[in-house]
């Protein structure tokens, strides 16, 4: 099948999922076309059946805001015609589902009928899409998608609660290539990051307020009071500066490393002992799944879809949002001795296996087939 994938090309979870899906689909013999404003960050290998088409938005001084949706829908029309794309899969409702719908309508004028699958990722529903300035357009584009999927049951429930949706929503969880994590590195560069006796705690995100970065620092502060430990903060975002300040105020700045965005997540997770994700909202928590797949137990909040990923007392622990004392207590329980830690590491990996790419990607393929069957040619 020739599939056009529209996504954000950034480090955000939705872009990562879309990119990994495209790579997996290409591996299964499909021809995949990424259509977005920049080459997706995790797409470093262009092969004969993976293509990238850049959406250019020319600057024009009349516009206070450059009309990306317009440029995207025009590009979709051109690429569908040029490459005979048979299926559009748009990730993140805003503005991708809206632009995709416009492209579909323009193509229909030329008797080209193409189905659109829309995948909801989280903030497009729970934070941004829900704002009154976007809500009618988001409802419209969800209801006018041929197939709608959400990355967790929790996000499906949120979507049905917050919007007036008359479309069935299929839950297709995020996934991870377990085989790719099997033999990641021969030399684990742990000693570059911490001393032998220190536990390495990791947080990876876009450091936005929704991730509750101050809670990450508070939890770590409690841990480091009880045992030698280092905290690795991976990612860039608006909360970085205040987090660095908080570390200074607590006098733990020498134990916390802010390493910025990274394309070497597996390497970092390879030498991590514990992953912290105390988010305010999280429709799924892909970063937690990535950690688990690398054998890193997770201390998280119990918001949104996290309980569908992190198994209480098995792959880690979940606490109420903001309950840093409970999170710190659970972290210390996991880290208290090597045998206990090893046990959680093994189980974290085991839990991640049900989200293996090979179990999830066929679900998307079946939905593509179903979407094609809905088309009236
Ligand atoms: O979490 C982020 O800040 C990034 C965001 C995104 O939209 O790219 O992630 C959302 O989609 C991910 C992939 O499906 C999910 O794993 C994240 O839980 C979800 N984030 C939120 O719901 C806050």
Task: Report what the structure shows.
The chain is α/β, with parallel strands linked by helices and 377 residues long. It has two domains: 2-175 and 357-373, Rossmann fold; 179-355, Rossmann fold (3-Layer(aba) Sandwich), CATH 3.40.50. It has 15 helices and 13 strands. It has helices at residues 13-27, 68-83, 93-108, 123-126, 135-143, 153-162, 178-182, 190-193, 213-226, 240-250, 265-270, 286-293, 324-335, 338-352, 357-373, and strands spanning 2-6, 31-36, 50-54, 87-91, 116-120, 147-150, 169-171, 199-204, 229-234, 256-260, 274-277, 298-301, 316-319. The strands form two sheets. A seven-stranded parallel β-sheet has the order 3-2-1-4-5-6-7, sandwiched between helices. 48% of the residues are buried. The mean pLDDT is 93. It binds ligand GMT. Ligand GMT binds at residues 12-14, 17, 92, 121-123, 126, 151, 174, 206, 208, 210, 281-286.
Keywords:
377 residues, alpha/beta, Rossmann fold, 7-stranded parallel sheet, 6-stranded parallel sheet, 15 helices, binds ligand GMT
Which sequence of strands runs across the widest sheet? Answer: 3-2-1-4-5-6-7
Total beta-strand segments: 13
User: What ranges have pLDDT less than 50 throughout 5 or more consecutive residues?
Assistant: none
The top-level CATH class of the largest domain is Alpha Beta
Mean of residue pLDDT values: 93
Alpha-beta classification: alpha/beta
What is the beta-strand fraction? Answer: 15-25%
The total of helices stands at 15
Number of domains: 2
Morphology call: elongated
Radius of gyration: 21 Å
Order of helices and strands: EHEEHEHEHHEHEHHEHEHEHEHEEHHH
């Amino acid at each position: 099948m020739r599939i056009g994938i529209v996504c954000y090309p950034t480090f955000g979870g939705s872009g990562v999922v879309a990119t990994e899906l495209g790579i997996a689909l290409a591996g299964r013999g499909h021809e995949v076309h990424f259509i977005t404003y920049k080459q997706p960050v995790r797409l470093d290998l262009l092969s004969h059946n993976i293509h990238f088409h850049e959406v250019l938005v020319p600057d024009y001084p009349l516009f206070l805001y450059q009309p990306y949706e317009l440029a995207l829908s025009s590009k979709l029309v051109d690429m569908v015609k040029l490459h005979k794309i048979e299926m559009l899969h748009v990730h993140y409702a805003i503005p991708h589902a809206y632009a995709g719908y416009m492209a579909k309508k323009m193509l229909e004028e030329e008797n080209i009928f193409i189905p659109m699958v829309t995948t909801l990722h989280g903030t497009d529903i729970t934070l941004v899409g829900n704002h009154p300035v976007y809500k009618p357009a988001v409802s419209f584009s969800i209801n006018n998608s041929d197939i709608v999927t959400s990355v967790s049951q929790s996000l499906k429930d949120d979507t049905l609660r917050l919007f007036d949706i008359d479309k069935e929503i299929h839950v297709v969880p995020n996934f991870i290539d377990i085989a790719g994590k099997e033999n990641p590195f021969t030399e684990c560069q742990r000693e570059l990051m911490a001393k032998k006796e220190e536990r390495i705690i990791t947080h990876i995100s876009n450091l936005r307020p929704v991730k509750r970065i101050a809670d990450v620092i508070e939890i770590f502060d409690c841990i480091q009071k009880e045992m030698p430990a280092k905290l690795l903060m991976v990612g860039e975002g608006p909360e970085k500066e205040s987090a660095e300040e908080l570390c200074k105020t607590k006098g733990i700045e020498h134990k916390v490393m802010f390493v910025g965005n990274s394309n070497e997540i597996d390497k970092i997770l390879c030498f991590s002992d514990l992953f912290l994700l105390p988010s305010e909202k999280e429709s799924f928590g892909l970063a937690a799944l990535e950690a688990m797949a690398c054998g890193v137990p997770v201390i998280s909040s119990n918001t949104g879809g996290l309980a569908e990923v992190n198994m209480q007392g098995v792959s880690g622990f979940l606490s109420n949002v903001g309950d840093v004392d409970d999170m710190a207590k659970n972290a210390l329980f996991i880290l208290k001795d090597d045998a206990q830690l090893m046990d959680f590491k093994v189980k974290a990996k085991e839990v991640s296996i049900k989200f293996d790419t090979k179990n999830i990607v066929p679900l998307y393929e079946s939905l593509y087939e179903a979407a094609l069957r809905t088309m009236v040619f």
